[in-house]
Amino acid sequence: MSNSTAVMVAPELTASSVSANSLGVAVVGCGYWGPNLVRNFHTCPASRVVLICDQDRSRLAKVAPLCPEAELVEDFRHVLDDPSVEAVAIATPVATHGPLVSAALKAGKHVLVEKPMATSVREAEELVRLAETRRLTLMVDHTFVHSPAVRRIKEIIDSGELGDIFYIDSVRINLGLVQNDVNVLWDLAPHDLSIVDFLLGGLPRSVAAMGSCHTRADQEDVAYLNLDFGNGLLASFHVNWLSPVKVRHLIIGGSKKGLVYNDLNLWEPIKVYDRGVSIAEDPEARRGMLISYRTGDIWSPHVEQAEPLQNVVRHFVDCIRTGKRPVTDGQAGLRVVRILEAAQRSIKAQGGRITL
Question: Would the CA dihedral through 5, 203, 139, 179 be positive or negative?
Fold first, then answer.
């Protein structure tokens, strides 16, 4: 496991660069997230929205004012056949990701796809293979990885300020939105799994999960996931659609300091705690359980104010133009799907641990 993942920030894109070399983009899917993609690609100086595609005409009508110059189409084939479309952003139900991404890549289009990138490891591996074979950019919209707060956390960890990482605890719970096509694990966990993947830079060695169904007999709406990275490092995740309160906490415990990331705190999302335990290095003292508790300062590092999705869009465009590998590339998306698939197997096995 490595902590060497670099934080990549797209350079500033100016209006002059747009007129000469703007990227033609089609946004497919105008449900919950699609309009946000339309808005951000429209306001990104280096891209222009050429087509907006959705099978539902009423959805197209609602999103049209966000980008009046874009053509509205109901048939995905228009996206594939239009030579002015260089890249496709896909925000459709998860079950359609595989076929749509595959078709776009085969048509020579770069692809940004919502999380999770596919419904199975096999499907995700095929998408990665297609992109690499055709030398196209495949990027997964793991939005939180591109947030200034998560980038700052990465800097703090890589600086060694926290010391060796002992554990990560994540809680992402709220009341709704219950999905029809995926369970709570596949809906909410990709956010925090992608964050942990970015921070730690590798797959866990094993996965265990428990889940329960209350709203539907075949769909978990409460789930707990545990990842074992070896060397004493554990990561746990609680996801829940039925909570009376909304919580977005990530707690990282290190040998030197601890860190709490609260995504709902807009002004101080990160707090670093100089608190923990100190264990005597002398073997004799260890046998005597001489543990001292350390209580020091608490500080909140500065985090710039920027919309993560705009960072996603700019990074996607920049990677296409320069040939750089995206931070949240197809391989990152594949790792998340690999964990989710193993977690689903564990749930069906009543929490049995699955080795990756």
Answer: negative
Mean per-residue pLDDT over the chain, rounded: 92
- Which tokens belong to 345? 């197997």
Backbone angles phi, psi at 107, to 5 degrees: -85, 0
Q: Are 26 and 53 in contact (CB under 8 A)?
A: yes
Give the number of other Cβ atoms within 10 Å of residue 79's Cβ: 23
Q: Helices 94-106 and 121-134 sit at what angle, rounded to 10 degrees?
A: 20
Write out the DSSP string of 69-134: TSEEES-HHHHHH-TT--EEEE-S-HHHHHHHHHHHHHTT-EEEEESSS-SSHHHHHHHHHHHHHH
Q: pLDDT tens, 65-99? A: 999 999 999 999 999 999 999 999 999 999 999 99
- For 244, half-sphere exposure in the C-beta direction (CA atoms, 13 angstrom radius) is 0
- Which domains, and CATH codes, for the chain? 15-144+308-329 (3.40.50.720), 145-305+338-355 (3.30.360.10)
- Rg (C-alpha) for the chain, rounded Å, is 22
Question: Across-strand partners of 276?
Answer: 294
* CA 193 – CA 229 distance, rounded (Å): 13
